[in-house]
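fyi for ur records
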Amino acid sequence: MISDAVKKQLRLPKTGQIGYVITDINKTIAYYKDTFGISPWMLLDARPEPCIEKGKEVHPLLRIALAYQGSIQLELIQVVEGESFHLNHVKEGREEAHHLGFMVQDINKRLDFCRDMGIGIVQRGTIRASGIVVDYAYLDTVDQAGIIIELLQWRVGPVPLPMNRLVFSFLCWVGSRTSLKGRVIK
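which gave:
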């Protein structure tokens, strides 16, 4: 659990996401759906470009599934190919909470603030899918917060997109009727 002091120090909004790194995304989606009734899921394959990990460019292909449980977005990540720090989690046999995500409006300003505080960036990248752009950064916060913190900024072009359950439901609805068809699992 992130202490109030760390949240205040980093000026974090309310937790918006819990991320899990897993080895079989379809099996995990089926389990969450059957056991907890969590659906719909939006499934996408993403190759973050650019993707910088500890100062080095990497090119992982990630299969990502998103759903909501209440006001919290659940993210499942499976590394399909390439190298990514996400693999450290599953190589250790751990399919558990990997990070907490926080939706922010100005990721660059937040990252400058983190650098000034001496907090490193483990991985930073941009994912583009169907006109939506997600800029993200995983912070080296295990010592301070007990878990990796991810900052996320969603947008359509240059326009910020608030990510919440309502927007997600709309994207699933649109996705089930457009080029994302088959990528929304109900």
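The chain has a mean pLDDT of 88. thats all i got for now
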